[in-house]
Design goal:
The protein is α/β, with parallel strands linked by helices. The chain has helices at 8-30, 45-60, 76-88, 107-113, 125-133, 141-152, 172-180, 198-203, 254-258, 271-292; strands spanning 4-5, 35-41, 64-70, 94-97, 161-165, 187-191, 207-210, 228-231, 235-238, 246-249, 263-264. Helix 1 (8-30) packs parallel to helix 10 (271-292) and helix 6 (141-152) packs across helix 10 (271-292). The radius of gyration is 19 Å and the shape is globular. The chain binds guanine. Guanine (GUN) binds next to strand 4 and helix 6. The site of guanine has 8 residues, from strand 4 and helix 6.
Length: 295
Amino acid sequence: MTARILDGKSLAAELRAEIAAEAAALHAETGRAPGLAVVLAGEDPASRSYVTAKEKACAAAGIRSREITLPASAGRADILSAVRALNEDDEVDGILVQLPLPDSSIEREVIEAMDPAKDVDGFHPVNIGRMVLGLPAFVPCTPAGVIEILRRAEIPLSGAAVTVIGRSQIVGRPLSVLLSQKGVDATVTLCHTRTNDLARHTRGADVVVVAAGRPGTLTADMIRPGAVVVDVGVNRVPDASRASGYRLAGDTDFDGLRDVAGAITPVPGGVGPMTIAMLLRNTVEAARRRRTAPA
Ligand code: GUN
């Protein structure tokens, strides 16, 4: 079997066109384009490139973006005061603090300082709590992107056995909640570094989502023929033949899985572009709610 490649880039382009139309309508209605503020502390090259990609996507969708760049030496007080200023700034509809912060021990406090109504990453406890309860909430972008790519590719989830590998707060854990929600209706198995016999759980799955942060986590012998594989990993693997000195690889043995899976997302060009599209969608939604909320 040769797997169908789930082309996140073209599905995201479709979605971005829809979001751009919504942003334009909101701009026309309210006289102002939706606005996103991105806080980037330090010079991590991967974070820099993610932030640039997000800003470019905003511009293409008619969303204003503003970057607040802080030095790696910025302390807790500097970052908290930047976030609080953005909470108060009426021009700002959505706030994103790029993670990891140089001092990761303050991340929780920084996220909790954010106005939940502007938390377009969906990381604030209010949004996570509302998501778990099935109430309207900003939902984290990568899990939302995984569900959207499967939905647009018409992969059935209702009643399906979905195994998620990785229990991170940004991806695996919220994804397990969303997949099991009414309306999505998957039966979810959440695996992690302490899981015994990982292959037993992946072989029983109709869909395997890999968000482990480790190349080669899922190999062809670990799935049943025809299963759908979603690879959330983004790893920089050393590659001397490239000018950059590295290439991007996911968490799966893509070449091996291609011969066994029914469908698979590539890296790059799979989940990544959908994640960015979800950020745009959340930002337009934040703007709509803020501008149409009863006083
Ligand atoms: N770092 C890696 N993924 C993300 C994300 O989705 N949002 C933020 N803010 N930082 C990240």
